[in-house]
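TL;DR need structure tokens for one chain.
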Amino acid sequence: MIGRLSGTLIQKQPPVLMIDVHGVGYEVQAPMSTFYQLPELEQPVVLLIHMVVREDAQLLYGFYSESERLLFKSLIKVNGVGPKLALAILSGISANKFVQVVKNNDESGLVRLPGIGKKTAQRLIVEMKDRLSDWQGDGTFGQDKASTGSDNLSTEQDIIKEATSALIALGYKPVEASKMISKLDKKQDQSSESLIKQALKNTVR
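>> reply
TL;DR here they are.
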């Protein structure tokens, strides 16, 4: 999966831009908040990427900051909110302001955003409030502190899920992959990469 692109900006026409990376042009969709930060054409650019793989396409979504990417990933998990609407939300409001609006149950603040009606606003508040409960003042999620050892249950579950998904992508059946991970001696500060490495090592014993 592509998580970051560093290259030369060769095209920008909202919401699409193109980055040349060693002769390969990557087409990326981005919110206006990211477009505002872009350099002039033919200048170096670095974007964080969220990749969506579908049967008929592999789509790249680019963001200037990690907080925007994290919020985008949370938004598209909400029922009825796809990547297009998530980009529209991020284009119309900053990540920190969106979190504030949700925590304040401010429906009117969401309805003012393009593509959001009253029902969608209510759904966003209900489904996003818990997900944003550990949003930090600097515009990051609590799980971003994993490197300092401040793990929580949701972070551990995410790591296990990532490791299991990776094993499935490597060709293991879902049930088999789950068993491989469940047998491991998990540590608090462990990453999904270390879990995968342990699981694969155990298969060759």
